[in-house]
């Protein structure tokens, strides 16, 4: 009940953010039900029906393998959700934990945050590139690499926010009540970080898509046969004039989804504790 | 006053190192508090009075000195050793908005110390105690399931007081406990604190910058300035015949409402 | 005619689609050489009243929704933004509660005073600087020659508030509005700053509106006092008269709530209940739920201001000292 | 500012920029390459890109004419002894190196010796060479241990071939590629600069002495019309196409088949087919893994595959590929249909049965492919599907080219991998003939045929032996040909003298703008 | 200030050392070896082994690292396996393009980002704000290469106004007019980052405008534009400056893609190509240079920060 009410209050009067939310819901539905709705097998190759223009039955046309782009786009929603959520989970679990513990245990923090500093000095895509070359191209590795890239910023952000919360009077009060480290960290500090973390998660989700698309473009992202929007763009990019639909549809899907996620993140950011607003970069 | 003080602070020093400089926040403070006694610690901002309170609850580590609580030096204790004593040394904080975790209900906030100190054996037991304590501070049992933001400032401070009282401590450190409250609410809370103190017989270190409030609640008063105590004494002595120049200046600065005549 | 005449001022805050009045029917006037104290607990609307007079509500979602304000005979509410700005900082100046944050941290204090001077006076930079040093000297800042080049963070809280005063006085305002000018300061500093303000008033004849929650400060400083409760002026009177009579039960309750510095009282005579929030609906006298003298009339009928003595207005059906 | 006036200003600004763009020097050919060559040292490098550039700088004793027959280039002519073991080659006189020196037999001997010892393809010939010596200022003699048929083809193939360098540079040079300051040849253009990542620039060599005769293929007269040739790396194919269309490049190589129709219809673009097709190869691991000795299983794999859909998908337009099982294209002297009935069967059921018979029980077969060449990847995807239908458990491993190259040298890492092969004028140059090439096909049957093949200098006999080798390839399946791919390049219509098709590597002598 | 700078520089050393170690480790864990790539298809294992030995790639990793580090300290980043020329030269060749590209991008970012951000903040909630902040967010949501692709199609292929790709050096024929080659790439690169700055300027200005001192400024009777620029923007600049370090990192990342799309001979593409070629010394060198540059820029940002905010003492 309370959650519903607060979601409503976050998005009240924000038409664009509402539209964004609806779009993301579509993406989520497509991701879940793609095997049911997709009219074709996204991997089915048809040398005869190559590069067909959009129409019936190929709503988004076909690519140079003769695969149905609409079905691939639907399955691509899966990758979008998977990469987004995966990167968020990796970033928050590793970076979040490092940041929180570093802020709370000052001495440990000295060491850990130094390490984070070192990693932060590597521009994100460069690090992802090197890591991806190091590992094999796979969905899992792409998720891990993008997650690790955002783990550093997440660690920084959580470090700052935890530090602020650590100085809060209610933490002092908990200490005076005799609460232990674990209880203070996870019962008193963490719940207060949930909403800023959600905002951060939404931005990671959005940027992970762009990062994954860039990796796909450079040929170091998801395995090329995987139907993802980034792969669709990158694999078919030479057809930009020959078969423009192959770039317009997946491009629009990426832009719409990243835009929506940003809109949603932005709306949520405006509703969180103003103390934490500065900590979350976003767009 | 009894011969054996409840708390005996000897030459307490708290120094902070920031950017290579040492700030002597508390620089050799000594006082004692007898059981059931209220000591007012008064001083201007930055004089170190709050740091004294924080050092006594180990929120800040003391640099030097001793603080004997029932004969045991609490300053030299580890966090773990100090844990059982926390029950007896409790703190009321200044800002009732900030001192309650916004994500926890009143019942959750109040049950935490009960379970940590194993006072409540069961959820039911805890519920009963919480209701009882809330009643003590003038709140109904319906408050239990609510979150801090649903209360007014005065009510929140009552919750803060309830969290302390639920442990039945021997010593309460009240750090500017009523400063953030509006005058009319401040009066209610002051009355409540005074009543609870008298009823339970707990001792109290009442830290405040407000001389009126300190006079109202304390038995004895210590005046602090620049990390040191400049004068300690019975409250009437301090307020009627201050010895120290600083104390005198402090008292002189207070605006007074002169033409006070009762008409009714 | 008074320098400032506020009549039936109503200020409302936008809350979703609703406009909730937060200050209602407030009337008072201030003359040259006079110090009017406005006292009340937090949220009673005293600061909003001050900002409304100054013209600083613009763009904050709060606005004046009724009444009139005349300054030197001119209707403030009818003025254009430009005209209003011409008065702001010039004929009318304001100092604020937080000396720590009210100065721009990135500019030297001298430059901030100079900026105010140059806005309204056609001065060369050099002359403005000279004047700024004079002003700093006037507000008793030691070594004004060098302090003029200090950044705000290099000054103590009291000094910063003095800089604010210097800035406010730079164009010789006719009216100075001081919103809780000493709340953030220690008592010893508070006394110095208040003394300074009164001293300067004596020299310049500036009218002052002093806003405070501290009855003591008001009593020591002001000629007359206006007590606000929940957006209304419940009692207005010359200071002596007010403290002599304490006609409104709220005024009286407020005074009794303060622990005295020079007497021992065992229990404070606290006002029960709590201050109502902005959105609350209270029929009749807004104070009646907390009032020891409330009767059924108070629950139904909104009291109108009554003059119980010359210059002593009370909004109460049953004021102390009044005829019941 | 109204919309119209804004548009006017914008158009004017655009026009200004466009004019400024046209200021680019007229005499420079800008060639968009797929990347950068590792080195231009032709003796040690087998990169096609390197040869495309380097053929303007370096020359060999022979080269190919338009019918892919070797013709003299730096050589004037040769005499071969009766027993076929002694070859005496006369050199053209008056040929100058870019450093101003005359080319003499000393330079040629030194160059051949280094090539024989360290050159990529030098070993193929020098296995059979007893000595190389100068017999005059402009004459050399090569003594063979036994007659060796393909010697002239090997000498004429510049890629990994015997480019002639000055003796002063090549004496003492080893396997290590020559450094750019030593890029001194006899070609119509001399090496000028190599700006890493930016371009390789060649400038006209004014003292060039051209061979006589009408230009024919790589043979005949060579005239350098441009002041300079610039080879600019533009790895992204879309950018190469857009760049040529926008007029930023005069020539762009390696354009995908699917764009052919569109580009051919574009008046601003000329398409130029490559005469010699390249072909994809799927190598099988003869050294380790389930396929090592199991020829029956390999044949089953071969049986499962229908090459046509893969070509349709990977290449596109019908005219650009041929489902041809012969390792050399139709019309070429080496064309043979021996064994090619097994080339493209697409018989899933038959393959399943054959695999079972060969003892295949569904163990995974590791198939490595790289994404650096889209047609490799596309083809591999189609094959994987077809093989899966025939019951094969294909584990498709997608790497970048560098990783694939490393992995393929480790026998335990793979069972099949995909690569391609450029057109070669002599089958001896095809990589599968090399016993050391990953896949390590070195059966006694191969050894026997190969020995006979190289020993014969009778063209007819050699063609016959080659057809037997091709048959053996279809039987033992060390590699699977995927079909011929006719690649094409695009050029600005302003270029004159390009001709309809490119022989092997596009060249820019006798070409002008 | 000088003392502070030196202190900060010294503090960078351990971070830098850790970074170099990481670079080295990462790069050498990448599968694929330069020798096989260099020698091509027909090389025998013996030849590959010989070249590997020659390149010193057969030594234990930590020995290689120490040798490399020692050389780096002497200013020698090694020799490119691929080009055979010193890594420093290879990087210097790419630096011209990258530096010009970055500078031009920064110019767009400041030129578009700051004024639009200010206008957006001053008109908070009105249509102009909704369009600019919405548009900014939209631009930040476009994949760089997609945008670049269409810019080429429109402005180079379609309209023929600007070159599509490549960048001849300023010293090449054409001189300064060659900068037009960088217009499209820099716009592509600027789009998402300018969007970021727009939103940052807007947000910081709104934050600052809620601060007490702005009320003081307004109480002086200053014009709204003066309050906005002199009091709000000047203070917002402090947090905007902090974002420039961040923007730099983002620029480097996106430059990798942009330089690839536009075939620019810059450092970004050099990295990608070198990774594909397994040219270890170049990869290491470039990453090292970028990391050093990044740290240096962060230091500059900190110094600028201190200049902008007198509360930060550099003593």
Automatic annotation (TrEMBL), chain B:
PROSITE patterns tied to this protein: ABC_TRANSPORTER_1, ABC_TRANSPORTER_2
Gene3D superfamilies, A to Z: P-loop containing nucleotide triphosphate hydrolases
Span of domain ABC transporter: 9-251
Keyword Membrane: no
SMART domains: AAA
Keyword Protein transport included in the entry's annotation: no
Domain of life: Bacteria
Alphabetized UniProt keyword annotations: ATP-binding, Nucleotide-binding, Transport
Family, per entry: Belongs to the ABC transporter superfamily.
Protein name: ABC transporter domain-containing protein
Organism field: Sinisalibacter lacisalsi
Automatic annotation (TrEMBL), chain C:
Residues of the ABC transporter domain: 4-255
Keywords: ATP-binding, Cell membrane, Membrane, Nucleotide-binding, Transport
CDD domains named in the record: ABC_NikE_OppD_transporters
InterPro entries assigned to the protein according to its UniProt record, in alphabetical order: AAA+_ATPase (IPR003593), ABC_Ni/Peptide_Import (IPR050388), ABC_transporter-like_ATP-bd (IPR003439), ABC_transporter-like_CS (IPR017871), Oligopep_ABC_C (IPR013563), P-loop_NTPase (IPR027417)
Keyword Signal: no
Signal sequence residues: none
Pfam families according to UniProt: ABC_tran, oligo_HPY
Single GO molecular function: ATP binding
Keyword 4Fe-4S: no
Localization: Cell inner membrane
Domain of life, per lineage: Bacteria
Topology class, membrane: Peripheral membrane protein
Family, similarity comment: Belongs to the ABC transporter superfamily.
UniProt-recorded name of the protein: ABC transporter ATP-binding protein
UniProt source species: Sinisalibacter lacisalsi
TrEMBL record, chain D:
PROSITE patterns: SBP_BACTERIAL_5
CDD domains: PBP2_NikA_DppA_OppA_like_16 (cd08502)
Locations listed in the record: Periplasm
Keywords: Signal
Gene3D superfamilies assigned to the protein according to its UniProt record, in alphabetical order: Dipeptide-binding Protein, Domain 3, Periplasmic binding protein-like II
Solute-binding protein family domain residues: 70-424
UniProt keyword Transcription, yes or no: no
Span of the signal peptide: 1-25
Protein family (similarity comment): Belongs to the bacterial solute-binding protein 5 family.
Name the UniProt record assigns to this protein: Peptide ABC transporter substrate-binding protein
UniProtKB/TrEMBL annotation, chain E:
Cellular localization per UniProt: Cell membrane
Membrane spanning residue stretches: 9-30, 99-122, 134-162, 182-201, 232-252, 282-305
Keyword list, A-Z: Cell membrane, Membrane, Transmembrane, Transmembrane helix, Transport
Record-linked Gene3D superfamilies: MetI-like (1.10.3720.10)
Pfam families registered for this protein in UniProt: BPD_transp_1 (PF00528), BPD_transp_1_N (PF19300)
Domain ABC transmembrane type-1 stretches: 95-301
InterPro entries, per database record: BPD_transp_1_N (IPR045621), MetI-like (IPR000515), MetI-like_sf (IPR035906)
Domain of life of the organism encoding this protein: Bacteria
Membrane association type: Multi-pass membrane protein
Entry's family note: Belongs to the binding-protein-dependent transport system permease family.
Protein's name according to its UniProt entry: Peptide ABC transporter permease
UniProt source species: Sinisalibacter lacisalsi
